UniProtKB/TrEMBL annotation:
Alphabetized UniProt keyword annotations: Membrane, Transmembrane, Transmembrane helix
Segments passing through the bilayer: 114-134, 141-158, 196-218
Pfam families referenced in this protein's UniProt entry, alphabetically: Zn_peptidase_2 (PF04298)
Protein name: Putative neutral zinc metallopeptidase
Top-level lineage group: Bacteria
Alphabetized InterPro entries for the sequence: Zn_peptidase_2 (IPR007395)
Amino acid sequence: MIMYLLFLAPAMLLGLYAQWKVKSSFTAMSQIPARMSGAEAARRMLDNGGLQSVGIEQVPGQLSDHYDPRSKVLRLSGDVYNGRSMAALGVACHEAGHAFQDAKGYLPLVVRNAAVPAANFGSGISGILLMAGFVMGAKPLILIGVLFFSAVVFFQLVNLPVEFDASARAKHELVAQGMIAGNEEHYVGKVLNAAALTYVAATLQSVMTLAYYLFVIFGNQRDD
């Protein structure tokens, strides 16, 4: 347990900080007014990029915003869809950035989307295999569990450039299309940078979890 905490504690603390940071940044930047709503900004960004066919829908929840590549729809939470703030513009146009990636065949997004089924399956089955392997002392089960968990780590790693690129596209389009002034970019950046930290924390946690499993396996081999 102590060794597990040594591996995972820094990533878990970073994750907690990232969650607090993104909520506090969104709340603060929601107080900075914008010229239009998040839905209007996303629509303008999409239309300017020739993506008139991509729809925008309002969905329940807070920070539940996402782009659905199968339906070609941006789904924005109420605070983002209706909000006329720097926070709403940043989040909405970040999701529009994913639509741009999808339309242009952005390779990391293609790889990430292809990895989703393996990551989802690996996340579910790896825990069962690892628990059974450790309880039974069966190294083959542990190794198979680690192999499946590696799919989760791969997904997290390839997800980082996808998210960073979507944020970069959002900031560029917001300024280029005159939806925000150049000196307002740092307000949008505060929200997007805080969101990026959550992806970094999730990736670090999965990498360190994998490192712990490998340490247990190969550390025990050395002891034997």
